[in-house]
Specification:
282 residues, alpha+beta, Deoxyribonuclease I, Chain A, 4-stranded mixed β-sheet, 4 helices, 12 strands, elongated, disordered C terminus
């Protein structure tokens, strides 16, 4: 025999014998006595059966909830008070369109942990567009010779990269808006073992030299040699462009950034542990 129980508060609905109803003991329920009262008054469920004359009929349970207008997409029939308000958004003025006044370009620093991952470059492009970035410094690109530039190019930006040599992982890249004049600047004492890329950017009448640096947690060189190399590079930069603004950004990891600041008279403008380090002088 099949039984249909609703919430454990109704007796058996199939093959129910009214003559022996007094012998059946009603089972208890967690909801309490008020649900029995609501059921007897017809406020909880209505039972319908289109074949009441057939034995073993299974009743259909219909709820007495208020009807919903399907044309409204199951929305409430009564309007609710709107609690949202419009927020005015400040308009960003691109650095290149700011005129002759001294303007610092918008910087974006990211440890990508491989932009070779699926859809990574699309996510990066969306971030640069959303934040209206002028210069983006990307570390741990994981790019190698087999990776063509056009596969990682972003519309409206020029791509510059320095791949790690001899080992997997690592690498740095810089994306610069096309509206700004930019090119790679190479130090005379450049060494391929260090992941440091200098980009010369000219904005209006000002010159910016952006250094993208990545110091791995387990380098093949002594950290002190990296500090010496950065110092020598900045000396060469300031010697070639005395009035330029020098920006050093990237992921320093365990490299002592306070040592970099003291050696090169830089100013730390933002530090986010294990993600971003930016220093500059001007």
């Amino acid at each position: 025999m099949s039984n249909l129980l609703l919430g454990n508060f109704l007796p058996a609905l199939i093959h129910y014998d009214e003559n022996n109803a007094h012998e059946m003991r009603r089972r208890g329920c967690r909801a309490g006595k008020h649900l029995h009262v609501r059921h007897r008054q017809g406020h909880l469920f209505t039972l319908e059966c289109s074949h009441t004359t057939q034995p073993g009929c299974i009743p259909v349970v219909n709820s007495n909830r208020p009807e919903v207008n399907l044309a409204l997409g199951h929305r409430r029939l009564t309007d609710r008070h709107r609690v949202l308000s419009a927020v005015r958004r400040a308009q960003h003025q691109p650095a290149a369109a700011a005129g002759a006044e001294y303007v610092v370009p918008t910087l974006y620093v990211l440890n990508a942990a491989a932009i070779t991952k699926p859809h990574a470059i699309q996510h990066l492009a969306a971030g640069l567009t959303a934040y209206e970035v002028d210069i983006a410094v990307i570390t741990e690109t994981h790019l190698k010779k087999k990776h063509a530039d056009h596969s990682f190019a972003i519309d409206g930006y020029s791509l510059f990269r320095r791949d790690r040599q001899g080992r997997r992982g690592g690498g740095v890249a810089v994306h610069v808006k096309n509206v700004m004049s930019s090119d790679v600047w190479t130090c005379h004492a450049d060494l391929a073992e260090y992941e440091l890329l200098w980009i010369l950017v000219k904005l209006n009448s000002h010159t910016f030299l952006t250094g993208a640096v990545y110091h791995p947690p387990k380098p093949m060189y002594q950290p002190s040699s990296m500090l010496d190399y950065i110092e020598a590079s900045i000396d060469a930069v300031t010697g070639a462009y005395p009035s330029a603004t020098v920006i050093l950004a990237g992921d320093f990891n365990a490299l002592d950034d306070s040592e970099i600041i003291s050696r090169n008279a830089l100013l730390s403008i933002i530090i986010v542990q294990l993600v971003v380090n930016i220093s500059w002088t001007g």
